[in-house]
Predict the structure of Ribosomal RNA small subunit methyltransferase I.
Amino acid sequence: MIYFCPTPIGNLGDITLRTLEVLRSVDIIYAEDTRVTIKLLNHYDINKKLKTYHKFNEAKASLEIIESLENGLDIGLVTDAGMPGISDPGYVLIKKLIEKNLDFRVLPGPNAALSALVISGLANDNFYFYGFTNPKSSSRKKEFENLKNIRATLIFYESPHRIIEFLKDMREILGNREISISRELTKIYEETLRGKVEDILNSNLTLKGEFVIVVEGNTQKEEMPDIKELLIERINNGQKKSQAVKEIAQEYNISKNVVYKESLNIDA
């Protein structure tokens, strides 16, 4: 069996008892960076064989892990911090395990995105986790363009050396929205700033530690188009009423029945 084990995002005391139990019981532990993982294992007096599993060797290491599983070994997989597979290595292996019909377990535990969402005070009934955006400003702006109409709260990760440019691009494309920006979560110097994007940019932001940015969703009210006017325009241009009803419903994401009822008031 292979276990995907979440690890603390800062405070070593946040690891779960079940994760410790699993790490003590498996034959091999695959780690994103063995230098980071060995500190955690030493803290809890766990002595296990360590191998690497990171984004640069995922394909090769996944095949090696599957071979070990087929030979009856138990394996634990961890990343440097948080949940494997969430903006961290793990997805490639999970896909291969499913393809091979091999059983696996994902243990619950620390996750920076969810912690930051709750602490943000922004709406959390619906949220959209995006993770890291493209490091290039032009590409990042295109990503923001694709996200700007989403009404759910947005969650991003960003590094300290890109956070200022990230916020500037966000302000340009998404507007001066309410945001919450957290860093060093669960650590001694944990900090969360809340306010408009402009406020955060003008604040004395400490450029240290990984950032989680929680962003208010699009709150602009959608204006309902004048359905009757759209129908008349298309019909006058030679389109059949039934076709006009179908296309308007699709283009404006309106119930076809609503458009059809409006069409009954038009002579054609």
About this structure: The CA atoms of residues 129 and 201 lie 22 Å apart.
